[in-house]
Design a protein that fits this description.
The complex is a heterodimer of chains A (about 140) and B (about 90).
Chain A lengths: L2 H11 L5 H17 L13 E10 L3 E10 H9 L6 H13 L11 H11 L3 E5 L3 E7 L1
Antiparallel strand pairs in A: 1-2, 1-4, 3-4
Helix pairs in contact in A: 1-2
Chain B lengths: L7 E8 L6 E6 H26 L3 H13 L5 E5 L3 E7 L1
Antiparallel strand pairs in B: 1-2, 1-4, 3-4
Classes of the chains: A alpha+beta (about 140), B alpha+beta (about 90).
């Protein structure tokens, strides 16, 4: 029995979800291998793109499909932007983050830590399956 | 990481009500060429502003080029009953 299936049954046993919800989740899980292609990495094993797929239904207008592919390099370059923030503004950003409970010094983001963040994205996979829309976020 | 900015963008906007939408091939390299003289003229101002706000001018330029360079391969596609939009950056 897969870990996901066991979690669903556990949640059903604990009364966190109803039998209908559990049935829907299990059905979605069964469809998963066919519906979700594995995220192929680049030739050197690095992820290249962040993909967002939305297959929705607008009540007034009808079906809406969105397909967005963002290069992961843009994320890398975006994080590099933190290095050009003036020192005074950097302190303010750090303070604001700390107030929100995020104890990160954005001035200390190194290329290595950035690679770690990007590497963690390899495992990223978000699937939302509701009546109105199916949303998938993954890296490839 | 490439510092070469994107050279071409394809933009298609097809409203369903209209028979013909907009199909554009935007030669971005021409945009960069046209902007280059303005960038050269504004460069001294840029260095003064960087000194005033205390940011590293060359590192900032490098980062801007890195962001532009990383746009290559960006793809946005929206298909709705009202309109269809397609953007691809090369």
């Amino acid at each position: 029995m897969s870990e996901n299936r066991r979690q669903i049954l556990d949640m059903l046993g604990q009364g966190k979800i109803t039998a209908d919800e559990a049935e829907r989740l299990l059905a979605a899980l069964e469809k998963e291998p066919a519906a979700l292609p594995t995220a192929p990495a680049g030739p050197n094993g690095k992820i290249k793109y962040l993909r967002v797929l939305v297959d929705g239904k607008d009540e007034r207008e009808g079906p809406v499909k969105v397909n967005v592919r963002v290069p992961v390099m843009l994320l890398r370059a975006g994080v590099k932007l933190t290095s050009i923030i003036p020192p005074r503004a950097r302190t303010e950003v750090n303070d604001a983050l700390r107030k929100e409970g995020i104890d990160v010094d954005i001035g200390k983001l190194t290329p290595e830590s950035l690679e770690d963040i990007v590497e963690q994205l390899r495992e990223l996979q978000v699937d939302v399956d509701s009546e109105r829309a199916k949303v998938r976020v993954f890296c490839e | 990481m490439t510092f070469l900015p994107p050279m071409l963008a394809i933009v298609h906007v097809l409203p369903r009500r209209m028979h013909r939408g907009i199909r554009l091939w935007v030669p971005l390299f021409l945009v960069w060429l046209l902007l280059a003289p303005f960038v050269l003229v504004l460069l001294p101002v840029y260095f003064v502003v960087c000194a005033v706000v205390d940011i590293a001018p060359f590192r900032t330029l490098g980062t801007i080029f890195a962001v532009l360079g990383s746009l290559n391969g960006t793809h946005v596609e929206v298909d709705s009953p009202a309109a269809s939009v397609f953007i691809h950056v090369y």
